Amino acid sequence: MPYEELPAVVRAWVERTLGSVVVSAATQQGGFSPGVAARLTTASGRRAFLKAVGTSLNPKTPELFRQEITAMQAIGPLPMAPVLYDVYDDGDWVGLLLEDIEGRLPPHPWEQADADRVLAAVEELSEALDPSPWPDAPVAAVRSHEFLSRWNNVLADNLDVPDWAVGRVEELAALARSGVRALAEGKALSHWDLRADNMILTDDRVVFIDWAHPALAPRWTDTVILHAEMRTSVALPELPADEAITGFIAAVAGGLWWGAAQPAPPGLPTIRAWQREHALVHLDWVRERMQRF
Known about the structure:
Layout (H helix, E strand, L loop, with lengths): L7 H11 L3 E6 L8 E7 L4 E7 L7 H15 L8 E6 L4 E5 L13 H17 L11 H4 L1 H4 L2 H7 L11 H15 L4 E3 L8 E3 L4 E3 L6 E3 L3 H10 L12 H18 L10 H22 L1
Antiparallel strand pairs: 1-2, 2-3, 3-5, 4-5, 6-9, 7-8
């Protein structure tokens, strides 16, 4: 959605916060969320990144933005996260004004040098967020319990599964339950949504963006999520032979597999194909770990 189509009251907040009239708004494409995502420049030369959405575009996205606001305010300044300048919320439209970061998204498929750099950065991030600077953050195993328990839905709906998993769905469901139990014991703050399009690489830092889903989880959680994102592209170090990790991967696989079989939600037409593709990646990883360990 172009910046110019925002309600006048939201644009007035932007210009009031930035202290000058917006003279340039470059819309950024990609991602799943509807709304405005734009790099702004004002008449005074000040720059900022704006993300804003209203309930008419998608009834659930404003609440995700509110979660991101709460998370970023609780985390405070970190070199691995963008600076939050100001927020807007009138009960319908929600907006965040953030630092405009000069950088690039990692290409996908991943390149080895970028993957190595990002994995090192996520280790630094996980260290900074363990223990969580936001002790009242949602618990991943609780908030995402429904998503992580969807092998039960796969069974109930009698969904097809890859050939190797035929007759093993109950085994996968049990493995997923063990992963969820381990997840509930974590005290670190996980970003929980790390993908190539949720980070920016600059000359001197990696910045993790879109903090709409952070939650308390084990320290290894974000590394596992990133390995799943990268594993079809580059060589990766082997993760520990830990049933908790395998169970977590299985739980995510089940959530994605069942979700991919559902109708697309309003305003998010591409998400089901993405879910199926990533479910297959997770399932292949689970099969490999079950054979090896």
